[in-house]
Amino acid sequence: MTAIPETQKHVYSPAELRRARYLGITYIVLALFVLWFFAVGSVGEGDSTLKLVKPTDRFKNFPNLVLPAAIFSFVVAAVFASLGAVQLTRGFKRLGNVVLAIVLLLFVFSFLTWAAAGKSFSFVGMMQETVKRSIPIALGAMSGVLSERVAVINIAIEGQLLGGAFVAAVVGSAINPWVGVVAATLTGVVLGWVLAVMAIRYRVDQIIVGVVINLFVLGLTSFMTQRILNDNPQFNGSEVFKSIEIPLLADIPFFGAVLFKQNIFVYATFVLVAVLTYGLFNTKWGLRSRAVGEHPKAADTLGINVYGYRYLNTLLGGAIAGFGGAYFIQGSVGQFDENMTNGRGFIGLAAMIFGRWHPVGALSAALVFGFAESLSGKLSILQTPIPSEFLGMAPYIVTIIVVAGLVGKARPPAADGQPYIKE
Amino acid sequence: MELQLRGITKRFPGVLANDSVDLTARSGEILGLLGENGAGKTTLMNILYGLYTADEGQILLDGEERHFSGPGDAIAAGIGMVHQHFMLVPVFTVTENVVLGVEPTTLAGIMNMKEAGREVREISTRYGLEVDPDAVIENIPVGIQQRVEIIKVLFREAEFLVFDEPTAVLTPQEVEEFFGIIRGLRDAGKAIIFITHKLKEVLEISDRVAVLRRGKVVGETAPADTTQEALAEMMVGRPVDLVVDKGVAAAKDVVLKVEDLYVADDREHMTVNGVSFDVRAGEIVGVAGVQGNGQTELVEMLTGMRLPASGTMELSGEDVTHEHPRGIHSRGVAHIPEDRQRSGLVMNFTITENMVLDTYYSAPYSRGIIMDWDAAEAATTSLVEQFDVRTPSISIPASNLSGGNQQKVIVAREFSREVKLVVASQPTRGLDVGSIEYIHGRIVQARDDGAGILIVSTELDEVMALSDRLLVMFDGKIVAELDPKEVTNADVGLYMAGATP
Ligand SMILES: Nc1ncnc2c1ncn2[C@@H]1O[C@H](COP(=O)(O)OP(=O)(O)OP(=O)(O)O)[C@@H](O)[C@H]1O
Ligand SMILES: [Mg+2]
Hints:
Structural class of chain B: alpha/beta
Largest interface: A-B, 32 and 52 residues
Strand content of chain B: 25-35%
Oligomer: heterodimer
Number of domains of chain A: 2
Bound molecules: adenosine-5'-triphosphate, magnesium ion
CATH architecture of the largest domain in chain B: 3-Layer(aba) Sandwich
Order of helices and strands of chain A: HEEHHEHHHHEHEHHHHHHH
Mean pLDDT of chain A: 88
Structural class of chain A: mainly alpha
């Protein structure tokens, strides 16, 4: 074996070059966009004030972020233009994705200063909302990571969230909120079991099973809401869990309010992400699960029970999604509404892909989607000239842009979606 | 210790893969297992390893009957197997692959990767199996991947080691190293079963040879008592011509011309560094070289599967540098790819479907948008017969064929239409002597019918025997152009290693 000397010049593949050019042009277009709409649009509008603390915070006198709206956006436009020029001529090599992240962040800030020009608004409130809204997405994504790591595609996350939410509302109202959460989790497990049996034992197409489960849950919960819950409000009004302040950490300006004054679902999600990351990459269970998803035959020839791991992880994933369903009730409004999950399960799947089947990546992606949701919520208050229907579309547009490949190619587990047939 | 297979019979729908086979393996001995493609070697070993259950027969370990309901049981009984198609998880590291299934853990299933890495290193020094425990499988050459497979087996403390065609994917140097390794294992008291199609290797390494034909053991002998010719005849059931029989080439017009070609691999390393050559109608040009010197990328570029970074390629004077595979293909280029399962076949398509994979869109296999399956099946039936593909039916998936028969399907498909250029990468990898004889014959015949042939192979004997003109590739460049009649294998070997004789 002769190794190729490392000193050879770096050559781009055609696909890489295409993507680099695409990014460069995107940066230039964004520069023009920022210049035209945000910079020119906020000339003479004055400063934008982004509040970083809440009046109830311990250090409530912490300074606000005050940006001269027009100047800021002019600067951003200039930065974008030069980044675009560099991208088109030299490229950023390894830093490509970092630059992309910075560009997206600056774009958002430029947009915020434009929307808030001459006004002030609570940035901390928006970020707090971001974390809350990302929770069901993140839990859905974790559920997806668990099952897809063993090559079972779970489209039914949406249904598991919705079913979990329904059961959490009914049981939570009838018995108590904690039992409601447990019941929701079990509902997810049951739906996961249906998926697992169909996909693993009977080798039905996994996408079809998932879609059927979603339609079934949507139909059933809608029917029961109209027929039963609407006439029996005593079954649809669970207690909502209060926020818990983490001592000391909650006092940190800005971050305290965003991260450490949240309810139990938020903390549970963070713990779960940590546990799953450690578990997937440092334990026997994780190694075997990944092997089953990448090369089931290899796992089988080593005496690993391929079907067993597929069942186990699909059920665990169902549990997490069911738990995520309870968030809509005990973690949010306390009451079930028809189709209240409204596509969060699918966005969770997108977060999983965007996060490259890694729990931490999926959480980060969920936060991006949560941000898009909370942005559209907050902006309707700021009275921007953008119609609120458009703002409501923001999360989905972000999903499409992100999944359509701005982040480059992600590689799913090699056997993803393929049934395994033992000889 | 002694492992005995007694009266093993295994039937697949329409095939009697093993027909009451008796076989014995003993500690401190290398048993060579020979047999034509589809003779049932892999099936027999899969039964031994618990992957299949035998319909009849017994497995005895030191005289005691054992039942394996899965590989787990076989592993526990001390049986290890290096499969014909490697069973490694490409995105895992060496260590992760080795410990998978028997992970050393501390409490609560937490893996102790440090300990694992240490054990891997220990095995690798003890048996001379040099590897980097932290390298990721997909980034290392096949030769090293095989060492990982061996370490995997040793890590499980196997006493009986089965190697299914281990040398098919190795370069001559790697084969030498590999022989050193298994001799070491034998001397350490392991029992080894070694499957191969290369008679020379069997004679060199085994202590005992068993030959399988159509599911039956047709003979057992010792290397000292036999010859290549005798073994070949025992395997195939008729005398086999082991040397390529070809006349003088009559080279005509240039069909393929590449100039100053630079091609990068998936990791953006330039692996082809300024290659120029041409192939004329009516000649066979061989490209020899150690695996990983740019041949893979060169062939992918020539067949439209990879775009070059710079340089040009012409087919009969027409520039096709940026053509898609279909474009190249429809200009009369046949391609026998290096990795048959990845780029040669759709494994879960039937033989018929695979056979028309490149021609399905035109007559006679389709009219407008309607497929004519009768025509496809008729053509497949005749090709299967011509190329002696051993299969119970043409409507079973390609994955059910034995490795060598899969290769024959590809060769049959590629030679089934008018071609003016054949690009063949390892065309006879995994084939038995009888099939090699036939395919070499077809290649020579295609040449005499006026096609240009480019053979890229790491098998030095093969390129030396077939080529009219020999190019040697090293480090992405053509370092020598030789006349195979005037050089020795040893000289070419030196060029392949980057030296000049
Ligand atoms: N899973 C399967 N289903 C049906 N038939 C099979 C299956 N596996 C193997 N066969 C058939 O059994 C016979 C023996 O195959 P086997 O793979 O054991 O051959 P082999 O001796 O290893 O050949 P090769 O040298 O080509 O690898 C072949 O005819 C093959 O088509
Ligand atoms: Mg075989």
